[in-house]
C-alpha cells in the first residue's frame, strides 16, 4: 500500500494543563475524503494545522507524503497543500487584489488569477462578481468563506485541508460545495466539520476525533 | 565663528521657571504628569551636566580611543533602549541590535566625515561625537518605530501572516507586507521633516550653527547633509535590525516565537 498523504502517529496536544487529545493515530490515503467529526474544542482544527506545521504536537509525529514533518520540509509541503480555515484572514484591500496577492507567491506561479478564472469561480460558488471589487473587510462571513474556497481552488492543490468550510453557507450552497469537493476523485481531502451535509456522501470516511484518543 | 553667547546661571534658573507651566496644569487638571516631568527634567540636568563635563575633556584632549570609547558606550545604551522600547526580550535581542546599530553608525559616520566633510581624522572628537550622536539618536527612534510596528503588526494580524504561510509563502513573502509597513512607519517622520524643513521649523543642527556664528548658507549645507545621512542611517539600521532579529524571532516553521516578545 502506498504511503498515506498525511499521517498522524501517536499525536498529542495539550493546552497548558488540559489535554486536548492524546495518542491520535490517523492516516489519509491519496484520493480519500476524510471528515473529522467532533464537538467544538475537541482539537479538529488543531490537527489540520499540525499537518502544515502551524501548531506543533506535544508528542508524536506528523508525516506528510511519507516524510516526518520538520522545519526544513514544511516549506515544500505548504506549497502542495491547500488550506481553508475560518480563523485565518486574507488581509486588507480590494478582494480581487488580495486574492491575486496569493498568486504572486513563487509557489503559486502556475495559478490563474485572471478575470475569467475569477468569474468562473464566482459562478460556481454563487458569488456576485461585483464583490471582487469590494474591500475584504466588507464581506460577510459566508462571502469570506466562499472567497477562501475560491482561493484554494484557484491554487489547484491536490490535497486540501478544510476547516469548517461550509459553516456560514445556506443549505443549498452547502450541498453544492460539498458535492463539488467530494466528486473529484484525484483530490485528497481532510476536512473538519459539524455539517451533516458531509455525511450524505458515501465517499466520505467519517472519523470521530474523540474515538481516536 | 564667534561662538554662542554664554547662558548665565540666572538664565538657566529662568528656564527652570518654565516648569511652572506643567505645575499649573497639574493643579488645574491633575493629569498626573508633573512628578514625571520633574524627574525627567532632573535627570536631563544631571545627565547633560555630567556629559558636558566629560565632553569638555574629550574635545580638549581629542584622543581617538576616547572618542571611540564614547561612541561604543552610546551604541550600547542605544541598543538596550531599542530592545526594551520595542518590547523584545533584551537578553535575546541585544546582540543583533547592538551589531545593527554599530555597523550603521560606523559606516554612515565614516562616510559622512570622510566623503562629505573631508576630515583628515575620521574620529576627530568634535565631529565624531556630535554627528555620531545625531545619527545614532535618529537610528534609535527609527528602529523603535520600525521594530515595534513590524512585530506588533504580525502579532495583531497573525491570522493573515499564518494564512500566507499556509498557502505556500516563503518566509520573505509572508513577512513582506509587515516589512513594508515597518519601513513606512520608520521613515515617514523623517520624510515629513525633510519636506517641511526651513518652512515649518529650523532644525537643531541649523539653529546651533546659526547661534554659533555660521552664516545661514553654511548652516543649510550642514542641514541638508545631516538630513540625508540621518535618512540613510534609519534605512540601514532598521534593515539590519529586522534582518538580524528575524532570525531569532521566528522558529524554523516560520512561526513567531511570542515568548521572546514582552
Q: Can you describe this structure?
A:
The complex is a heterodimer of chains A (213) and B (262). Chain A has two domains: 1-80 and 158-213, Rossmann fold; 90-156, no CATH class. Chain A is 29% helix and 26% strand. Chain A has helices at 44-50, 74-78, 95-103, 115-124, 141-154, 171-182, 209-212, and strands spanning 6-15, 18-28, 33-37, 59-64, 67-68, 81-85, 159-163, 188-193, 204-208. The mean pLDDT of chain A is 91. Chain B has ten helices and no strands. In chain B, α4 (64-85) crosses α5 and α6 packs across α8. The termini of chain B are far apart. The A-B interface holds A 52-54, 56, 70-72, 74-75, 78-79, 82-83, 85, 87-91, 102, 104-108, 151-152, 155 and B 157, 159-160, 162-171, 173, 177, 251-255.
Keywords:
heterodimer, A: 213 residues, alpha/beta, Rossmann fold, 2 domains, globular, B: 262 residues, mainly alpha, 10 helices
Arithmetic mean of pLDDT of chain A: 91
The fraction of residues assigned to DSSP E strands of chain A is 25-35%
Number of strands of chain B: 0
Stretches with pLDDT under 50, minimum 5 residues of chain A: none
Helix content of chain A: 25-40%
Radius of gyration of chain A (Å): 17 Å
Content-based structural category of chain B: mainly alpha
Helix percent band of chain B: over 70%
Approximate shape of chain A: globular
Instruction: Give the beta-strand count of chain A.
Output: 9
Q: Largest chain interface and its two residue counts?
A: A-B, 28 and 20 residues
**Span from first to last CA of chain B?**
49 Å
Topology of chain A as a string of helices (H) and strands (E): EEEHEEHEHHHEHEEH
